[in-house]
Amino acid sequence: MGNEDGTTSGGGDRRSDRRDRRDGGDRRSDGGDRRSDRGDRRSDGGHRRSYRTDQRRTEALDAAVRVIVERGAHATRYSDVARASGVPIGTLQYYFGSRDELLVAALRHGSASDRQRLRNHLETLGSPWEKLNVMVDAQILAYDVTATPASLLYVEFFRLALRHPQVRDDVLAEYRGWRDLMAEVIAEGAAVGQFDPAVDPDRAALQVLSMLGGLVIPLALADPSIPVAGAREIMMSSVATLVGADPALPARVAPAPGPR
Do 122 and 113 meet the contact criterion of CB atoms below 8 Å apart? Predict the structure, then answer.
């Protein structure tokens, strides 16, 4: 229908309505974008808080390991870890719950960190024989209290395992991890011709760890009749026989870095 000025109103009004609806949609879209931006900012803030929490928890565990080494697990208290880490007691309780859970978490953290550190070091070495030397040295140093106080962490781990089934499972898993890693190195040595290919890597690894287990008590108690150098010599001569090492291989290589 025409207007008095000669224009047609129906189609124009409908087009205007459609434009208005599109404008409203754009405004709603803008609002959604702004909400999305706020959500992204909240997500970023959550990630930052999560990172800070993880970092602070790790610092608390590092401090707990130091306190356990210094005082023993039985005498480690929340207040000691709070002083050593700067993390309030209330926050430690929020992170770990009970004191026992703190001790277990610290022992897991310390042993896992040391084994990963050793694995990283092994990856820099080319010779399986050298790797095997380094692994034996690392085990000996882990129980040599004259080498580093951190060696006491492993003694405390075993003591706690005798009373706590969940820690016992951790200790056995740690032992299995060492055995698997050593078996890998022995298999690698057999593959490149350094060791006898007829040797069963897993059985040989178990035998090596069994011999090392016999040195735990004298090394942990610093028995003067079994010095570290003597323990190393006994172990490596026995290991060479067990894996059928090539006689041309060097008798000793540089020792492994000790525990933290």
Answer: no
CATH of range 10-97; options 1.10.10.60, 3.40.50.720, 1.10.3720.10, 2.60.300.12: 1.10.10.60
For residue 199, the surrounding DSSP H or E stretch is none
pLDDT tens digits, 217-229: 788 788 899 888 8
Amino acid letter for position 179: R
- The pair of structure tokens assigned to 36 is 């999305």
Q: How many residues does the chain have?
A: 260
Q: In this predicted model, what pLDDT tens digit does every residue of 126-156 receive, in sequence order?
A: 899 999 999 998 888 776 655 555 566 777 7
pLDDT at 185 exceeding the cut of 70: yes
Q: Where are the alpha helices (DSSP H) in 123-191?
A: 128-142, 152-161, 165-191
pLDDT of 170 above 60: yes
Span 46-70, pLDDT tens digits: 555 576 778 899 999 999 988 988 8
Rounded Cα–Cα distance for residues 96 and 103 (Å): 9
The CATH number corresponding to 107-243 among 1.10.10.10, 3.30.70.1730, 1.10.357.10, 3.40.50.720 equals 1.10.357.10
Residue ranges per structural domain of the chain = 10-97, 107-243
Burial of 52 (0-12, 13-18, 19+ CB in 10 A): exposed
